[in-house]
Amino acid sequence: LAGLVGWARQRLEAPLHVDALAARAGRSPRTLHRRCVSAGTTPARLVAQLRLERARTLLATSRLSAKEIAARCGLRDGAQVARAEANTTDWPSGVQPWTSSAPGAR
Question: pLDDT band for position 57 (50/70/90)?
Fold first, then answer.
């Protein structure tokens, strides 16, 4: 899956459907799903995880707005990122995502 993950990371702003992921991996959608499940995820969860990882990186390293970050990560809007991150506890001390205390928050 490593090659597929690298390919997907370069295309997070675009729709990443399982058929396209499977074609890139040279597998059928069903086989890709089975390989993901054996790695503890699904194709959809894998893409969602990559999108949130990119959003966290941009939040910590840029001055982009939540809307701009969402667009660059293939997410609907900043609120979607905030909802997904609501239970994240690995933020640096004193930083809450999507609030005025986050670096670059607007």
Answer: confident
- Whether the full predicted model's pTM is greater than 0.85, yes or no, is no
> What is the DSSP code (8-state) at residue 92?
P
Closest CA to 12 of 60, 42, 55: 55
Whole-angstrom distance, CA of residue 73 vs CA of residue 92: 22
Cβ atoms 104, 59 nearer than 8 A? yes
Question: What contacts 24+ positions apart, CB below 8 Å, involve 6-15?
Answer: 8/46, 8/47, 8/50, 9/50, 9/54, 12/47, 12/50, 12/51, 12/54, 12/72, 12/73, 12/74, 13/71, 13/72, 13/73, 13/74, 14/74, 15/74
Side chain identity at 91, as an amino acid letter? W
Integer Cα distance of 60 and 75 in angstroms: 17
